[in-house]
Write the structure tokens for this entry.
Amino acid sequence: MFSLYLNQTKPLGIKLIGLVIPAFLLSACQIVGPNYERPELVVPAQFTEAADQAPNKISNTWWTQYQDQLLNDLVNKALQNNTDIKLAVARIEESEASAREVGAATFPQIDLNADASRTRVTELGANPVSRNPRSNYKAQLGTSFEIDFWGKLSRAKESARAQVLSTQYAKDTVALSLSGLVASNYLILRSLDTQIVILQDNIKSREASLGLTKRRLEGGVSSALDVHQAEVASANLSAQLAELTRLRALSLHQLALLTGDLNLNIASADIKSLPIPPTPPAGLPSSLLEARPDIRQAEEQMIAANAKIGVAKAALYPTISLTAGLGGESLELGDILKSAARIWTGGLNLYLPIFDSGRLNSKVEQASAKQKQALASYEGAVQSAFREVNDALVNLRQNTERETALNTSQQAAKKALEISENRYQSGYSAYLDVLDAQRVYNDAALSYVQSRQVRLVATVELFKALGGGWQESDVQQVK
């Protein structure tokens, strides 16, 4: 440490000016470390999978496209009450406070130091004293300021700002994931509601069929085998109904946890009443991925890591600081504010590392390695996002075709059941044909509802993959 203090032959103002002017000159020097440049990634201009449909405008409140007010209320409640959201908000507050701490280093720090003491010294020897014991009072305002000669503080502020944005995007990522979970669980709940209604109707139908079979047995038309087969079929449906009821309760509990409302209760409704949200048009540009909060979070982390290289490199160069102090010192407390008791100091401190066995260079290498890690994470996030969008698009398209086919299957199974029941009642077919037709129709009806659920959940996954939605202008950019 090399310290240069002002002498007392010149006024304090002139001396401070002599320190301030070099400070401004020094602060105008070049900032060390690499400036951030967004990396160019090799990504196709458009998604390989896209639906051929007219453009539609969709806002970031994408869940409103399902036109279900209860779903809207559940998502809004989750965004307000969920503990993961609260945790993300607390992390934002922490990073903002850290950024303010880093920013404070660019301003002078002013401290007040005061002390009072009473001492007695020996009176022997050749050191006579005028007063023994005696008191000593001292009060002084001191300040220190590091000149950001190499941009170390500027790079630290740049890194801190990026960290703040990173935590904000992390919160947006949590919010997007949370809203997707709420929507998916709500759709599953509605699917189970519809499946339960279908099973209840089929149970009533089979109980009626069982009653008819018992009456035919009493009349000598049917055998006991038909009655037992009908009882087995009815009991199987009852067991299936119990399982769906259990799954619905679990889905409701999950929604209660996500929304923070442990007393949540949702009445039954039909999933088929929910509209299918519009799918994106063909030619959707891959640049939409830039709106995904997780990708923006990864980029801000890369910016922060890039700035830390400058902080590490600046540590290799001299650190220059200004110090000053002004106060008073006297033997009597009442004299401490008098001009004769005034004391002051001013100085310029220079710290220059000479030999540290490569410690500072190792920190530069560590910062560079972390920047490479952040870059790899960013590239991986973009590539994964591109795959997720393509997966969501193909899932949506294929599940749409699957739902259409299963709807046809359901309608055909219903007609086959009606024919088999009429033939049985007329005595033209065995009861086994009715049981088989009932089983086929029950499976087809449930499969159709499940396919509607999968299709709607696929739209949720597409919204999540795109970061919340798309705008008509996004498509026109590539036309």
About this structure: The domain at 31-115+134-317+352-476 is CATH 1.20.1600.10 (Outer membrane efflux proteins (OEP)). The first strand starts at residue 2 and ends at 5.
